[in-house]
Amino acid sequence: MNQPSQHPHSVVQEFHPRAREALANPQIRANFRKAMDGLMTKRQTAFEGWELEALRDLGANIRQRALSKLPDLLEQLEANLTANGVQVHWANDGDEACQIIRDICVAREAKKVIKGKSMVSEEMELNHYLEAQGIEALESDLGEYIVQLAEETPSHIIMPAIHKNTTEISDLLHDKTGTERSHDVNYLTASARQQLREKFMQADVGVSGVNFAVAETGTLCLVENEGNGRMTTTAPACHIAVTGIEKVLEKLDDVPPLLALLTRSATGQHITTYFNMISRPRQPGEQDGPEAVHLVLVDNGRSSIYQDNELLETLRCIRCGACMNHCPVYTRVGGHTYGTTYPGPIGSILMPHLLGLDETQHMPTASSLCGACGEVCPVKIPIPDLLVRLRRESVDGDKLRVSEVRGHGVKRRRVESLAWLGWQWMHSRPQLYRLGTAVSARLRALVPQKLGAWTRYRSAPRLAPQTLHQMMQKRTPTAANTSQQPHREATR
Asked: Going by fewer Cβ within 10 Å, which terminus of the chain is more open, N or C?
């Protein structure tokens, strides 16, 4: 099977130090708390008056139907795009996708690339690759532009710079571009827009992501608010769209329900400012648009996920970020703590398949399993269930299908595994269970007060001196005593 490109930041042992650092940073805590509270309120307001559960069912069914026909739909998409004049390329992994984009740039003698927001390009580390090839790659999405200037990675899949406040952004723009320091958001935005406008006109190639790829019509749909996506796909002479193979939809009629779910779940908007539909390059007689359009379809581990009927549900994701906005872990430590392209709940079930569970052991356990992510997912991905499965498989390596397919080894947590096997064995034998609890109750004073990480922030649990059955037997009259009660009353 295809091997994914390794992400240099996915270092398991760094997760806990990064989490402690984020928790100790009051500015990070305040930035995320303010932003997430606002997004949760906007989402709730945006769905008022809607039959939300019916819409979620519809969205889930649309995505599941498309995935059930994925191989055929991908071929149909390629055929229709090719007929429309769009060149389609297939990439087994991120490295191959980067090479395809480089080859297109070299063939056009391109030295400057302008990019719209694309999480797949982040997954591929496209910017670093192009820069190493002597090709300038500049982000045009404001949030992506900010994190690029800061030499950081996005901390959120929808709002890349959500971890920074206005003061931090103002200082960054002043240091990097000479913009005057200001707390006027409109001024800062206008300054960045002016700087980027020149880059659009100078760029040889524009690179964008894809929100939905419609097989029926051969149409690439892009959802955005800033207009940079439209500029990226029309101003340069060549447009390259890059997307994961799972983004395909069967029909154009499938787009409106998913768009309604995406915009409301992501930013609490009824509709975004721009919705772009691209089906072909510029035609004779047309005044604008690119001369050539390319689509790069990236696998990078997705075909392995597709082979598992349970894990397949991960591919329904429409990248709205709602699970992150409602996750009590993500909202307190932020996206950079995870050290992977996709953070938060969706990242915790996706990245183990893309990188292997050996590289991402921290992600399935970076959750309280409160279920909030599953409740707000617009396409009803059972994220908590999948997290539990990954936790189980991180302990029992023999059952880890995906890691075996990906060629990654799994470090068995033998002590934990043996402990749970002992628990299962004891609880399936009632007499042994009663004996064990009786002995434990008598020896409860010997239970240590420090039980590893569990007691770092909690008090150690203390065993009760009596079982619930014993206490109830003392409080409730026995059957014999109850049956004698009427006779005693009659003889008085």
From this structure: C
